């Protein structure tokens, strides 16, 4: 489309359109020969010029189903720009435009189901009943799309139509993940009304179960769980009450924090890690000292040899133990750290 014709379409100047066609009778034919093109109809849809669009559609009907470089037909663009007069005008000229598949094989009916346009959905169904059978590249029907986007008003229209034309079997059609619209509806309802982070008897949440499915994972259910802020059990914050906290036994971390004077629970992880390393070094050194005390100290289980007169000969000192004396506990401090 040349710049002159584009300007004419932007202004919606019908007289200028006919003058341009008179000057170049094949101008619309050349546009039509292109497999993908931005036509005067596309420009009219963006500019909100329904009368101009209908004139072009009347002169060259085939341009009405042409896709532009964004994968959109003039009817798709008219819907996106809320140009309802152009939408109704185009489907009056050719109701089969409702079945034109744009990018992702999305039809105008799929689009109105997504944005919950109940009135337009009803008009589309009456104008082109077979459009209810169209599926996207993901094998989704308009019902699938309405359910996934919680388009309640449009969904009621679609279900009412299926009931009246006796095509309820479409509800059993499956998308690429093997889900019918009912499957998706049930999952979305449950996610909305239940706690998605409740653990089962094995301590697993719904997200844990989803991850365990491996290659059998249903990606749509995964997306729904993620949007509902579902978490794995390991990522859940503790629901422990103050009573539970005080009743439980001290962990090794608690003992470490207690004797190193770390009371804040909001310390940065790197600081806590550094303190842990220092604590381990202290424990190791103390443990070694307990097992191998320096000269002049005995092990806990040391029994000094006695001489003939009953006195201890250890270290040749006067440190013999009497009957009322107890052995020292040089390794006791090290054992404490190992508890």
SSE topology sketch:
Elements: H1 3-11, H2 14-23, H3 27-33, H4 40-47, H5 50-59, H6 74-80, H7 84-93, H8 108-114, H9 118-127, H10 142-148, H11 152-164, H12 181-193, H13 206-212, H14 219-227, H15 242-247, H16 252-260, H17 269-291, H18 332-338
SS-derived structural category = mainly alpha
The value of Rg in angstroms is: 40 Å
> What's the order of the H and E elements?
HHHHHHHHHHHHHHHHHH
Tell me the distance between the termini: 83 Å
Give the strand tally.
Answer: 0
Count up the helices.
18
| Main CATH class of the largest domain | Mainly Alpha
Mean pLDDT: 79
The shape is elongated
> Which CATH architecture of the largest domain?
Alpha Horseshoe
Reported for the largest beta sheet, the result is: none
Could you estimate the helical fraction of the residues in percent? 40-55%
Strand coverage percent: under 5%
State the low-pLDDT regions, or none: 264-268, 311-323, 329-339
**CATH H level, superfamily name of the largest domain:** Ankyrin repeat-containing domain
Domain count: 4
Would you tell me which CATH topology of the largest domain applies?
Answer: Serine Threonine Protein Phosphatase 5, Tetratricopeptide repeat
Question: How would you characterize this protein structure?
Answer:
- The chain has helices spanning 3-11, 14-23, 27-33, 40-47, 50-59, 74-80, 84-93, 108-114, 118-127, 142-148, 152-164, 181-193, 206-212, 219-227, 242-247, 252-260, 269-291, 332-338.
- With 339 residues, it is mainly α.
- α4 runs parallel beside α6 and α10 packs parallel to α12.
- The model is unreliable at 264-268, 311-323 and 329-339 (pLDDT under 50).
């Amino acid at each position: 489309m040349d710049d002159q014709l584009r300007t004419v379409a932007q202004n919606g100047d019908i007289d200028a359109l006919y003058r341009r066609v008179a000057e170049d009778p094949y101008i619309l034919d050349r546009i039509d020969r292109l497999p993908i093109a931005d036509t005067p109809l596309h420009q009219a849809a963006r500019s909100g010029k329904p009368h101009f669009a209908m004139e072009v559609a009347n002169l060259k009907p085939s341009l009405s189903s042409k896709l532009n470089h964004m994968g959109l037909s003039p009817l798709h663009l008219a819907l996106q720009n809320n140009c309802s007069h152009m939408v109704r005008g185009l489907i009056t000229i050719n109701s089969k435009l409702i079945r034109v598949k744009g990018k992702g094989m999305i039809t105008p009916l799929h689009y109105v189901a997504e944005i919950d346009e109940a009135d337009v959905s009803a008009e589309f169904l009456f104008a082109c009943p077979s459009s209810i059978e169209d599926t996207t590249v993901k094998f989704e029907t308009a019902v699938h799309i309405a359910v996934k986007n919680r388009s309640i008003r449009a969904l009621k229209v679609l279900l009412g139509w299926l009931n009246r034309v006796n095509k309820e079997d479409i509800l059993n059609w499956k998308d690429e993940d093997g889900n019918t619209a009912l499957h998706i509806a049930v999952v979305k309802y449950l996610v909305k009304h239940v706690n998605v982070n409740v653990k089962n008897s094995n301590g697993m949440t719904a997200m844990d179960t989803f991850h365990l499915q491996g290659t059998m994972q249903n990606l749509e259910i995964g997306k729904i769980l993620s949007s509902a802020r579902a978490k794995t059990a390991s990522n859940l914050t503790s629901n422990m009450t103050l009573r539970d906290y005080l009743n439980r036994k001290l962990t090794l971390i608690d003992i470490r924090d207690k004797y190193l004077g770390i009371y804040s629970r909001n310390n940065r992880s790197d600081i806590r890690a550094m303190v842990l390393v220092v604590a381990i070094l202290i424990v190791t050194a103390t443990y070694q000292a307990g097992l191998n005390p320096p000269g002049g100290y005995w092990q806990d289980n040391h029994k000094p040899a006695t001489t003939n007169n009953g006195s201890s000969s250890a270290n040749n000192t006067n440190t013999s133990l009497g009957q009322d004396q107890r052995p020292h506990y040089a390794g006791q401090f090290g054992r404490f750290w190992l508890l």
